[in-house]
Amino acid sequence: MSEWSTSAVGREHAFEYWRDLICDTFVQLSATPTRPGGFDGRLTHADLGGLELSTVHAGGQRVRRTPRLIARAGEQYLLASIQTGGHGRVEQDGRVAELGPGRMALYDSTRPYTLHFDDAFEQVVVQVPLTAILAETGLRDAARVTAVSLPADGPAGVVAQFFHGLSRMSPADPDGARALAQHGRGLLASVLSLSSGRAPSDQSLARERVHAFLRAHHADPALSADDVAAACAVSRRTLYRLFDGGVGRVLREIRVEHARVLLRAAPDRPLGSVAAACGFAGDRQLHRVFREATGLTPGEYRAGGTRSR
């Protein structure tokens, strides 16, 4: 988690500093303030692995992604702005999305767009690689759903609440946020699919149903593929097809992510207790699986190691 504020520079340089900051955090942009006088802005940013999450608290401004900037730096991202305070609008592909608290809009960095805020506002911004998110949805592009205001009382609102909660959690518990963020891109892909008029496929729904069951029951060391198949109303053959060889790898990943959280959150907790809470048969299995997954022993990770395979 990184945090920056215009309070770090003099008032006369505040907006220039802010312009550089948003370009470094998101994509290359031009920006101008919408009010004369002083400008204040604060931005926090976290790279959660395949998903970047930022919170923006700032004064009024007009931000543009122009063809010239796209040609200069062709970053390819899908971004989602979730309004948490104030009002704004997103313009892209000939549409305008009005944003109030709880509403969300998507936009694509490969085509020109404008963000406009008359006065002070707050947002959570989610940023994911465009190619990857399109591959998950089967869409060729996001042009049908950009700059569409997605309401707080629909499916997008549920996803917006997830990301808003994740943004509040990240500063205090970055490991826990990282563990939860692995599901965020799938949720955003669902919003993209639904907004385009394409419901998620039966296969996608089945995969998410299995994921949800594994997250809820991964602490059971006796959990088997037959148990998962029966609970999710699919055959073992379907499980192998959904997860490229079975659910064992997915189950290990979920258990390792849970162990990461516990190892950092409770430094004095015995390894046997961590193993039991995460569904490992004992601390020896935890040690072996954790090292295979991360390149570190549980003790090395707990001591602050970061290497990962």
Outline of the structure:
The chain has helices at 14-25, 67-72, 130-137, 155-169, 174-181, 184-195, 202-217, 225-231, 236-242, 248-265, 271-278, 283-294, 298-302; strands at residues 2-5, 30-33, 41-47, 52-58, 61-65, 77-85, 88-92, 95-99, 104-108, 113-117, 121-129. By secondary structure, it is of the alpha+beta class.
Description:
- By secondary structure, the protein is α+β, with helices and mostly antiparallel strands.
- It folds into two domains: 2-195, Jelly Rolls, CATH 2.60.120; 202-302, Arc Repressor Mutant, subunit A, CATH 1.10.10.
- 43% of the residues lie in helices and 21% in strands.
- The chain is built from 13 helices and eleven strands.
- A six-stranded antiparallel beta sheet has the order 1-3-4-11-6-9, with helices on both faces. It has a five-stranded antiparallel beta sheet with strand order 2-5-10-7-8.
- Helix 3 crosses helix 6 (184-195) and helix 10 (248-265) crosses helix 12 (283-294).
Record the SSE blueprint.
Blueprint: E1 2-5, H1 14-25, E2 30-33, E3 41-47, E4 52-58, E5 61-65, H2 67-72, E6 77-85, E7 88-92, E8 95-99, E9 104-108, E10 113-117, E11 121-129, H3 130-137, H4 155-169, H5 174-181, H6 184-195, H7 202-217, H8 225-231, H9 236-242, H10 248-265, H11 271-278, H12 283-294, H13 298-302
Antiparallel strand pairs: 1-3, 2-5, 3-4, 4-11, 5-10, 6-9, 6-11, 7-8, 7-10
